[in-house]
Amino acid sequence: MTTLRERTRQAVRDEVLTAAWRLFARHGFEATTVEQIAEAAGMSRRSFFRYFATKEELILVRLIEHDEKIAALLAARPATEGAWTAIRAAVAPIMESHEQHHDRSLALIRMMREPGLRSTIAERERLWIGLMAPLLAKRLPRTSVPFDQDPRPLAVAGAAVMALSSAQAIWAEHPDKSLSRLLDRAMSAFDS
Amino acid sequence: MTTLRERTRQAVRDEVLTAAWRLFARHGFEATTVEQIAEAAGMSRRSFFRYFATKEELILVRLIEHDEKIAALLAARPATEGAWTAIRAAVAPIMESHEQHHDRSLALIRMMREPGLRSTIAERERLWIGLMAPLLAKRLPRTSVPFDQDPRPLAVAGAAVMALSSAQAIWAEHPDKSLSRLLDRAMSAFDS
DNA sequence: GTCAGGTCTGACACCCGGTGTCAGTCCTGA
DNA sequence: TCAGGACTGACACCGGGTGTCAGACCTGAC
């Protein structure tokens, strides 16, 4: 049960978010100042920072929601599946959705590659890895090494992010290619 | 042949770099202001920015030099070696050096994990991948896919970075472990 | 030697993201 | 209705980064 305060606060956050994303889409991330976002949302600059700690957070929040869905899909894969198979399957719906809303996804992915957003994207990948690694640990060949001393889950989650990211990098330049197929090709370099 | 101007400029850059790294080591990256660095190097804040575009660059420059040496080692591996074998071999001397200068390396690696340096490290990894990917391309199983449409080199370079990074993450917490062995264990999740 | 060109420098004002503080207002629950 | 906390705008400040200007400095040509 949430209090009224929390709900109104969330509503304000949502308003700021949609106002901000509209501005980002129109002018880009860096070119949009916090002042403009605050004004579009009808509040002072200072108040903006009472709802969001940083401008980056406006981007991150949405991306994290998205990533948590993927994590849920991964967790729902049958326990018998190996790490690579499971992660490939968990990510498949996203690939399909990207190819369905081709132009919108392409524009989004290209915006994400804006230099001013690099550190945000890096942070997103960091969080993504932290989210996926524990889910992958059980799907790796067993060892006697204790959890917190086994680098493999982090490495596999990281490699998966890199496969995705490199597939998207190629796709951004050659949007006629199939994103799913690019991802398969990228991952083929690991699983062998 | 370089001009006198270029050489003095380089000398000044070196002085600023050593002054800055001394301060970073003592107080950390974020806690050190550009003003302090400029003062330690005997110049104004404005002049500092005439030698380095950003404070990050002070960190990046040194890391990139380091990474270029690894790239050279990778390029020098026999052409018959596969991508994973070659990259593991190219990185081996670094691992040894880290274990030899155990405490200094550990302090350095821990400083690199400072939150304020995350975006810098991300940029470093980005550049590292760009450096390694073309060297790995020839060591992958041949396909009919043209160079610029093959995501595998980027993916493999990215995965290698992630293996390294996860090995270092574990090492930072368990410095008694062997870094080489951690890296082997991380990479064992790929090569199979 | 001197004079004109470009370079390097400090100083100052400014932008933007982010924070501390304060006083006033609004909301909630007793 | 009233006390306490939450929310707000305003303002001053910090630190990284940039544009600009005027003076010092260096260099090469005459």
Poorly predicted parts of chain A: none
Strand content of chain A: under 5%
Number of strands of chain A: 0
The main pleated sheet of chain A reads as: none
Pfam family, one (chains A, B): TetR_C_14
Domain HTH tetR-type (chains A, B): 10-70
Keywords (chains A, B): DNA-binding, Transcription, Transcription regulation
DNA-binding region (chains A, B): 33-52
Outline the fold blueprint.
2 copies of one chain form a homodimer.
Chain A: H1 4-27, H2 34-40, H3 45-51, H4 56-76, H5 83-100, H6 102-112, H7 118-137, H8 152-173, H9 179-191
Chain A binds a DNA duplex (30 and 30 nucleotides) through residues 3-5, 9, 33-35, 43-47, 49-50, 53-55.
DNA-binding region (chains A, B): 33-52
Domain HTH tetR-type (chains A, B): 10-70
Organism (chains A, B): Nocardioides dubius
Textual characterization of the structure:
Two copies of one chain form a homodimer. Chain A has 192 residues and is an all-alpha fold. The first copy, chain A, has two domains: 1-52, Homeodomain-like (Arc Repressor Mutant, subunit A, Orthogonal Bundle), CATH 1.10.10; 55-188, Tetracycline Repressor, domain 2 (Orthogonal Bundle). Chain A has nine helices and no strands. The first copy, chain A, has helices spanning 4-27, 34-40, 45-51, 56-76, 83-100, 102-112, 118-137, 152-173, 179-191. In chain A, helix 4 crosses helix 5 (83-100), helix 5 (83-100) packs across helix 6 (102-112) and helix 7 packs across helix 8 (152-173). Chain A is globular. The N and C termini of chain A lie far apart (49 Å). At the A-B interface, helix 7, helix 8 and helix 9 of A face helix 7, helix 8 and helix 9 of B. Chain A binds a DNA duplex (30 and 30 nucleotides) through helix 1 and helix 3.
